[in-house]
Amino acid sequence: MIRRISSAQPFEKQAGYCRAVVAGGFVHVAGTVGQGDTVVEQCRSALGIIQTALAEAGASFADAVRVTYYLPDRAEFAACMPILAETFGADPPAATMLECGLIEEKYRIEIELTALLPTGG
Fold first, then answer.
1. Whole-number mean pLDDT of the chain?
2. Is the predicted pLDDT of residue 12 greater than 90, yes or no?
3. What number of other Cβ atoms are within 10 A of residue 77's Cβ?
4. Which domain of life is it from (predicted)?
5. How far apart are CA 70 and CA 111, in angstroms?
6. Domain ranges of the chain
7. Which of 63, 73, 61 shows the shortest CA–CA distance to 107?
8. Whole-number Å distance between alpha carbons of 113 and 89
């Protein structure tokens, strides 16, 4: 069974995707950008959007098994590290950070996450 979770943002329909897909015992959260002027603000905002999708799926950051960070400037990643360490706690997921272009220049970070759906979720 596949369950799709939408955040009801217009861009999802325009670009043909949904915020998250629950399938095969996992929650696959699409690459997510946040709002704000700085990488820190955008990181916190993106994590909030991801947290909402995970909650709707019946999961949380504690269930994350893989996360990928995309930044147009890898030097900005250091500013996000304390936020990410706090978010994922003592049992963090496997992670990768890539330097690349994002969909719009105003975005400083995009976060993609996969979580294992808890039993019964």
1. 95
2. no
3. 17
4. Bacteria
5. 6
6. 3-116
7. 73
8. 15
